[in-house]
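lol ok so funny story. i was supposed to be doing the assay writeup but got distracted and ended up predicting the structure for this chain instead. priorities right. anyway since i did it might as well share w the group, maybe its usefull for someone
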Amino acid sequence: MSLLGPNHWYSVVLATLLGVPIYADIFGTLPIAQALLSVGVGLGTVLALMMAVTTLSLPSIILLKKVVKTPLLILFVLYCTLGIMLIGFIFNSIQAILL
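and the output, tada:
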């Protein structure tokens, strides 16, 4: 909570980066998301973590590297990272309306 709390501007960035080494499917992240929401972590931060775990996990990147060339893989990772963070910031800012 001290790192991912709703009062920290960097919580979405940190959640996105923390999601990269974790390997799980979207259903495996649901209990984690529920626990984080119950202790007061922002909705956008939780969404960023869930999306990063499923999209940017290290095993996924390793498998994609075998299929696509490096410049395209870098573009994919950058595009997805920026999109995940943007969605996280948006959802954190409108959380009061949604919950």
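The chain is about 70% helix and 0% strand. Residues 70-93 form the longest helix (24 residues).
back to the writeup now i swear
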